[in-house]
Amino acid sequence: MDNDILKVLYSQNEIKEACERLGKQIQKEYEGKTPVVIGVLKGAVFFMADIVRAADTYMQMDFIDVSSYHGGTKSSGEVELVTDITLDAAGRDVLIIEDIVDTGQTLKFLMDTFANRGANSIKVCTLLDKPAGRLVEANSDFIGFEVPNEFVVGYGLDYDEKYRNLPYIGVLKPKIYSHN
């Protein structure tokens, strides 16, 4: 897999340090509260695990699965709810954990969904923020790294369900996905 990577953007160590930093920020933000922490499948699984372990605070965890990429390298613009959470978000403080905020369409969909369900508050923690890709306004409260407008994989992020298990985040060589 390493041979498919053009360059490494963030090493395993840099990701670990970012997770510890974000975990402490989240711990401080939710002191005295018990937020519902919602991981966006599948990309945020590794990130969410590292974040919640770094935050010494009470929380409940759940997962939601939405899709907008459908195996490609660009968002289709249509967000589909694949699997919903099992916990009730009404009257709760919701923290959405995302792997990357690119176009913002998925994040806006999620924020609107939980607002419509009566969440008390909605905050977002993303590992990667790609403002150059933004098509709709959707901002994160906690950000690990700002990334350039390149196709990145690793540490949960994929191309065609591959590369998620890389321990770092890297730019995928265009020749790998240019046939699409």
Automatic annotation (TrEMBL):
Record has DNA repair as a keyword: no
Q: In which pathway does it act?
A: Purine metabolism; GMP biosynthesis via salvage pathway; GMP from guanine: step 1/1; Purine metabolism; IMP biosynthesis via salvage pathway; IMP from hypoxanthine: step 1/1
Molecular function GO labels: guanine phosphoribosyltransferase activity; hypoxanthine phosphoribosyltransferase activity; magnesium ion binding; nucleotide binding
Subcellular location per the Swiss-Prot or TrEMBL entry: Cytoplasm
Enzyme type, top EC level: transferase
Domain named Phosphoribosyltransferase: residues: 11-159
Q: Supply the InterPro entries for this chain.
A: HGPRT, Hxn_phspho_trans, PRTase-like, PRTase_dom
Keywords of the record, alphabetical order, are: Cytoplasm, Glycosyltransferase, Magnesium, Metal-binding, Nucleotide-binding, Purine salvage, Transferase
Q: Which cofactor does it need?
A: Mg(2+)
Question: Got a GO cellular component term for this one?
Answer: cytosol
Which GO BP terms sit in this record?
Answer: GMP salvage; guanine salvage; hypoxanthine metabolic process; IMP salvage; purine ribonucleoside salvage
This entry's Enzyme Commission designation comes to 2.4.2.8
Q: Cite the SUPFAM superfamilies for this sequence.
A: PRTase-like
- Annotated membrane-spanning segments are none
Its catalytic activity? GMP + diphosphate = guanine + 5-phospho-alpha-D-ribose 1-diphosphate; IMP + diphosphate = hypoxanthine + 5-phospho-alpha-D-ribose 1-diphosphate
- Fetch the NCBIfam families from UniProt: HGPRTase
Please give the family membership noted in the entry.
Belongs to the purine/pyrimidine phosphoribosyltransferase family.
Briefly state the protein's biological role. Purine salvage pathway enzyme that catalyzes the transfer of the ribosyl-5-phosphate group from 5-phospho-alpha-D-ribose 1-diphosphate (PRPP) to the N9 position of the 6-oxopurines hypoxanthine and guanine to form the corresponding ribonucleotides IMP (inosine 5'-monophosphate) and GMP (guanosine 5'-monophosphate), with the release of PPi.
| Listed name of the protein | Hypoxanthine phosphoribosyltransferase
User: Which organism does this sequence originate in?
Assistant: Lentilactobacillus diolivorans DSM 14421
